[in-house]
């Protein structure tokens, strides 16, 4: 039951993030929408991994490790994207 609920909530986050990516024109809002989409994908992956783990408490640690690695990479990519947007804004102010 809880894996299904997490899967549905993850799918809702993916839909909201995709809608924001398609509709928003401001760069920072697009970055935020992209993060929302990624978070939804991580929740869906976690729900699928949890549902497939039939044996014991916690299940297989490999999907959990992959999701954690993906979260760290997404954080680094978001930091880089925001830094690039700020640098572009500063260069546009100078000219």
Concise account of the structure shown:
The protein is mainly alpha-helical and 95 residues long. The protein contains 3 helices and no strands.
What would you say this structure looks like, in words?
The model has no long low-confidence stretch (mean pLDDT 88). The chain has one domain: Helix Hairpins (Orthogonal Bundle), CATH 1.10.287. 7% of the residues are buried. The protein is built from three helices and no strands. The protein has 95 residues and is an all-alpha fold. The longest helix has 34 residues, at 61-94. It has helices spanning 2-23, 27-52, 61-94.
For the sheet with most strands, the description reads: none
CATH topology: Helix Hairpins
Query: Can you count the helices?
Result: 3
Alpha-beta content class: mainly alpha
What letter string, H or E per element, gives the SSE order?
A: HHH
Intertermini distance: 57 Å
Number of domains: 1
Mean pLDDT over all positions: 88
> What overall form do the CA principal axes indicate?
elongated
> Would you identify the CATH architecture?
Orthogonal Bundle
Strand tally? 0
Q: What CATH first level would be assigned?
A: Mainly Alpha
Estimated share of beta-strand residues: under 5%
- Low-confidence regions: none
Helical fraction equals: over 70%
**Any idea what the radius of gyration is?**
17 Å
């Amino acid at each position: 039951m809880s894996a299904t609920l997490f899967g549905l909530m993850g799918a809702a986050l993916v839909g909201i993030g995709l809608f924001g990516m398609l509709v928003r024109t401001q760069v920072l809002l697009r970055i935020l929408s992209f993060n929302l989409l990624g978070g939804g994908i991580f929740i869906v992956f976690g729900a699928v991994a949890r549902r497939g783990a039939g044996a014991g408490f916690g299940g297989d640690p490999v999907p959990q490790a992959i999701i954690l690695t993906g979260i760290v990479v997404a954080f680094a990519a978001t930091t880089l994207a925001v830094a690039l947007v700020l640098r572009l804004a500063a260069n546009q102010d100078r000219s």
